[in-house]
Amino acid sequence: MDTRIALLDGKHIVLGVTGGIAAFKSADLASRLVQAGALVDVVMTGAATEFVRPLTFQALTHRPVALEMFSLLQETDIGHVSLGQRADLMLIAPATANTIAKLAHGLADNMLTTTALACRSPLLLAPAMESGMWGNPVTTANMEILRSRGVCTVGPESGRLASGGHGYGRMSEPAVILDAARWVLGRNGRLAGAAVIVTAGGTREAFDPVRFVGNRSSGKMGFALAAAARDRGAAVTLIHGPAALEPPYGIMAIAVESCADMERAVLDSIGDADALVMAAAVADYRPEIAASQKIKKRDDRLTLSLVRTSDILSAVAEQRGAGRRLKAVIGFAAETRDVLDNAREKLTRKKLDLIVANDVSAADSGFEVDTNRVTLIDASGGMQTLPLMSKTAAAEQIIDRLVAILER
Ligand code: CTP
What we know:
Layout lengths: L11 E6 L5 H13 L3 E6 L3 H4 L2 H8 L10 H7 L1 H7 L2 E7 L1 H8 L6 H8 L4 E5 L3 H5 L1 H12 L3 E2 L3 E4 L5 E5 L3 H13 L8 E6 L4 E4 L2 E3 L6 H12 L3 E6 L11 E4 L3 H12 L4 E4 L6 E3 L18 E3 L3 H8 L8 E8 L3 H11 L4 E6 L11 E2 L1 E5 L4 E3 L3 E2 H17 L1
Parallel strand pairs: 1-2, 1-3, 3-4, 4-5, 8-11, 8-13, 11-12, 13-16, 16-17
Antiparallel strand pairs: 6-7, 9-10, 14-15, 17-19, 18-21, 19-20
Helix pairs in contact: 1-3, 1-10, 5-7, 6-9, 11-15
This protein binds cytidine-5'-triphosphate (CTP).
């Protein structure tokens, strides 16, 4: 499966690795960046090489690793100036307190700090250190200096530290750092300045305090759409039902449970939105009565009476019109038969600009799997069938269509 991410594909990323135990996680980060299509040049400090061998990074990136500043060969091939000049992003993970202090004060005493000083691209730091070092006022002051100059940071997180203690200082996980890199790179993209609401996952409709009527939606498609909109610079609000996924970095996530909760959250934020992408699998029916106590097992048969929930897209359609900021609404049609006819009918009934139709009865598309096979139908009848692809790739294509709708 194609693992490339449009925003990272072909981008030059300088990955600086400093000497902390979290350096081993940077090998995973380097691998993820390469899989996303980035050209990754690793620069290591001497201390970093005590934790991870340069060969590890060289094998993962298929590119030479820069170590010593005054190696003549390296200066010509991958010198600090040329590395810094061609970088789209410099990312330092882990960034130790020592390197942070050097960066804050413009010191350039090794290949990594020299490259950072010469670099004209955005700089993203993933600090990692003992909680005492992180909490030290000198580190706080150094971080403030760097942030005031536009340096971006991700983490550190709170959790178990290498010392055995607990506290702030753990480097963020590679997946989160990669996501933060996407946020930094995409900030000025074609959706910069646009507010986009994405809904994701299924809703749960309770019939007693411990049970609910739900559906098989995993939220994967909606979370990927939120990330793709974020990658193009949008301010994203992700309104999601229960899902076993971490919300993408750099977006506002609102967790909801029922259709009524989701409708409230959507209508509360729609006034300031430019676009709504309604990927959630919203329940069409809810139990008429939700018992306040757990229903006990008494009879052989239990009958649930279900009543219609309100249709969120229809409620949004009623609000669309003159003076409203909302310019684009995209809906989904998860069908098991007559996929295109049903999707066209929903496009018209729900006054959508685009509908994403998919056949959820196929094993490789729809609920819970990582791939999808979708057809996009627009309001003027145009139809585009995409081949089987990852949900990430499908999300990129759908958000590119959203860009086109907003720019027309
Ligand atoms: N949707 C909604 N509110 C609901 C149900 C669905 O806004 N109560 C949205 C979904 O998020 C999706 C679109 O409407 O974007 C189509 O959802 P779908 O369940 O396929 O269509 P329904 O209108 O519910 O029709 P049916 O279930 O009969 O196919």
